[in-house]
Amino acid sequence: MLSARLKITAYERRHRSALLDLAxxxxxxxxxxxxxxxxxxxxxxxxxxxxxxxGDQLIGYIGISLPVKxxxxxxxxxxxxxxxxxxxxxxxxxxxxxxxxxxxIKNLLILMITNWLPAYLSELGFxxxxxxxxxxxxxxxxxxxxxxxxxxxxxxxxxVTNMALIDHLAFEPPWQLTEYDMRQALRIAAxxxxxxxxxELIAYQLSTRQDEVGHIARLAVxxxxxxxxxxxxVMRQVAADFxxxxxxxxxxxxQKSNLPAQRLYEGFGFFRNGNDIELWRKQLN
Length: 285
Hints:
Helix content is 31%, strand content 35%. The chain is of the alpha+beta class.
């Protein structure tokens, strides 16, 4: 039987080609790497990766992110076509959970962006935690430019440390970015700006572009300045920037529970487009 010969090992550099091939060709694959490619994520050692072998053949893999305050994401999960997905998923998840305790991970999360995983993960104790909603803006209409004392300029490499500090003040785990992730996000962003008040960095935004859609991927304001219309000023600037490039289709994600963010986006004409994503979580003993 498959179970008698299944072996779980830690990922090593020599396994890179086998894992990338399986990730590319398998229909049973989950990938949620945000700002990184699979090859880069593996090469930079941004998490713990376990492999499932049947003899000498790689039949599955799982990758979990480095923890942030006890929270970790399942970033990669894949099974070779024609295998027993439920069995292999269970073996991989259990192996990943065994790695969590030494790393201080108490919550394991996954964004359910594939339709084949819910049945298997629910059997392993994962449950829906909340929804991430997507909002869209179509057209060139924007509200009037707010009057604020802050100055908005393009983000620079030397801003990364302060951007990460703002990020950790503005968001709770598991949504916080590490400084490494922030630096990578800045490298590939289509638009990145910061807001400064008396030379103090108090807000930032990072946005991407996918074909003809501009996506506002990250917007954070220091909690002490949230009532100063800073978010509106930063939001309007990036929206106007995209519109100046003839990108009239914009998108943004936020948690369903984050009502202040939704009100901000609705004020700019964003509406929920129905593309909600479930966030699943397992609390580990």
